[in-house]
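User: What would this chain look like folded?
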Amino acid sequence: MSTTRVVVAAALLATTAFGGQAEAAWLKSGSGTAAAAALKLSIPDKPILDSAKCNNSGGGPTATLHWTYPTPLPPGFELLTATTAGGTASTAGTATTTSATIPLPGNNRVYVSVRATAGAWKGTRSPEVAAC
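Assistant: Here's the prediction, encoded as structure tokens.
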């Protein structure tokens, strides 16, 4: 397979992860063809705050959350925190299931969201839940 075909196929598949639909096909040596397609990363539902520890004693502030996601589950999730609603988010942790406990930055109100990940691909952030 030529390098050009591999690059084009990868670009088409990356488009799919961000909401577009794409299929890639290329010729291989010998008879027949090959094709690849990727599924869109869905937006997780708003996380549900199971518990929050909002003080610095005993290991610092943490939040335990769970969320729902349509099947099949992606390879992972990234948990994000922001100090203002809708603000710039920082990665607070990762998970391979639909629940996690993450550290929180400080004792102030923190907004937590989740997004699906697949390798270097990152989906859209979920709605936020306030913690602390």
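The radius of gyration is 19 Å. If you want, I can go into more detail on any region.
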